[in-house]
C-alpha cells in the first residue's frame, strides 16, 4: 500500500487519550498525523497550513478524521463549515453513536467514510487505503 509521505491527516477529537492513540496508530501505519481538540481548532490549523506561503508540500492536509460528538464545534458542524468554505478534504467520521439517518445526512454533506469507535488498526488501515488510493 502506498503511504502518504508529504500529506497529513488531521485527527480531531476532544478526548486527549483517544486522539493521541489515533495519531500513534496513524504514525504506525506510516501516515503523517497532526491533531486538534475540536472543530474550531481544526479550522484554525487548516487555515494556518493553507496560508503557509513557504510552498512546502508537507503542509497539505488531505484527510480529516473527526469525532462526531465534541463541545465547541462537533464533527458534523466541522464537515458543514468545510463545505461552506469550499475546502475539499476527505472526511472520516468516528463515533460510537452513528445512526443510519445520521450517516445518510453526513454522506449528503460530503462524508468520505466512517468508523465505529473503537476502531482497530486493520479497520483504520483498510478505510484509509480505500479513500486515499
**What is the element string, with H for helices and E for strands?**
EHEHEHEHEH
- Summarize model confidence as the mean pLDDT: 89
The tally of beta strands, per DSSP, is 5
Content-based structural category: alpha/beta
Inertia-based shape: globular
Strand content: 15-25%
From the alpha-carbon coordinates, what is the Rg to the nearest angstrom?
Answer: 14 Å
Keyword list:
133 residues; five-stranded parallel β-sheet; 5 strands; alpha/beta; single chain
Summarize the structure in words:
By secondary structure, the chain is an alpha/beta fold. It contains five helices and five strands; from the N terminus they run βαβαβαβαβα. The chain has helices at residues 16-28, 39-50, 75-84, 100-108, 121-132; strands at 7-12, 32-36, 60-67, 90-95, 113-116. Strand 1 (7-12), helix 1 (16-28) and strand 2 (32-36) form a beta-alpha-beta unit. The chain starts with 6 loop residues before the first strand and ends with a helix. The mean pLDDT is 89.
Structure summary:
With 133 residues, this protein is an alpha/beta fold. It has helices at 16-28, 39-50, 75-84, 100-108, 121-132; strands at 7-12, 32-36, 60-67, 90-95, 113-116.
Helix and strand arrangement:
Blueprint lengths: L6 E6 L3 H13 L3 E5 L2 H12 L9 E8 L7 H10 L5 E6 L4 H9 L4 E4 L4 H12 L1
Parallel strand pairs: 1-2, 1-3, 3-4, 4-5
Helix pairs in contact: 2-3
